[in-house]
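User: Teach me something about this protein's shape.
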Amino acid sequence: MIGNGGTAAAGGSPRKSSHSRKEGGRRKDSEMESEPNAENLWSSLLSEVQTSRSAQLASTKSLLVLGDKESGKTTLIAKLQGNEDPKKGSGLEYGYIDVRDEYREDHTRLSHWILDGDPSHANLLSFALTETHYADTTVLLCVSMTTPWNIMDQLQNWATVLQDHIDKLPLSSEETKKFQGEAWRRWVQYIEPGDEQELATSPTKKAGGRGPGGGNGNGAGGDQEEELELEPLPEGTLTRNLGLDLIVVVTKTDYMTELEKDYDYKDEHFDFIQQAVRKFCLQYGASLFYTSVKEDKNCDLLYKYLVHRIYHFPFKTPALVVEKDAVFIPAGWDNDKKIAILYENMHSIRPDQYYTDVIARPMVGIGRKQQASREIEVVAEEEQQFLGRQQVFLQQGLPAAGTSPGMPAGVQKTPDRKVLGSPGVQGSPKKMDVTPGKPLGANTSEGVLANFFNSLLSKKTGGGMGSPGTPGLPQGARPGASPQPDDYKAAVRSDAAAELDRLTRNQKKSLASPNSSLEGHSASDC
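Assistant: First, the predicted structure itself:
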């Protein structure tokens, strides 16, 4: 018994030690496993945050701005940026617009490319629009209301440039069909604000969830084709589907008032322009904006629409067609029937007329009418410099600048005073006779008085008059030389005495005539 007990006791001891070794090994294994689990936890959290941020606002979106020179591209983008001092560049400009989501407390940068208006820079589109970022690119086509006769030509030219560049991209037919299907879906999925409840019951909107070549992700190709037959696109809509989100922006609409004033534009002319641009937008599936940075019209609305189309921000503004200079037509809203409403105001214009026959280029100049009759800016001379220059002439004995040599100093040529000797001025033949050896100014009453007072001044200053055009200078005298004092004084005094005698006689006659008339009245009364 004892031996068995001892055997049992001896046998029990090694079992206990092996159990403790097993527990110690498990503890070490758990500690070793806990460290990588903690690292995996942090890495999973970081990857989750990164994934959630990338799902909120993408950083690969970009904006491509096309348009002719002076079409307002740089000014418009600067307005969207909040930049008050835009700088024009050349070639292909790059920048970004800050986009903030206040609800999610997230922000990103929307890249933008501005291509120079010179068509020779079209090859630079290879940097702005690539096959990698094709689906992330939104295109703005800018035209200016300052040259409305060029609007349609510019839109067609830039659409052709864009199409030519797309044809050069290494896109497969499947990819091209996919992008066109997405553009088709964007068009048919438009819902008028306030009509969201009709989405569940409208077969049109159900079909709008899928597009040609876009697929529905479930492989239900037959159902897709059946639903597409429910709503074929109207004629003339998306006939030139580029697979891009296009926005046509008509800038500088504040110039409409100048067109009305200078070129006699009427409301029917602006309606004709709008219907032509809207038909272009129907063909390409584009939205339409009329903006004015100067008057801040539709600029904020354009920013909200951009972030709605690109980042799916909420947007509740319906189409705006009431104000002719602040039009907004979202993609998917317009159709031929709505455009036909504009025809009602066209009384002297037919909508099928050729565009440049109605909106013709002005005959005078190109561009603004004011350029042909622009006034030249004149900078006035400083007063002290002018007086100093006149003083130099007076000291040299020359006539002052701006006066005629043959005109007396006392007679200035002003609009309200006729020059002596001009047609229609009646005068005494005796006084008009020119005395040999005397200037013309000495034979007139103003000239005589001027010579008289000049002689008084010459007594005090002792300076000569000195110029052939200076009143009182005898014939044969050299310019700058002092006249003979005796002859000059005698002539001035005789002329002054004769003039004073004439003035005295005229005064006596004027005083005698009222007295004679009074006597005649008194005699008749008697």
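Now, about its shape. The mean pLDDT is 75. Residues 458 and 464 are 7 Å apart (CA to CA). If you'd like, I can walk through any region in more detail.
User: That's plenty for now, thanks!
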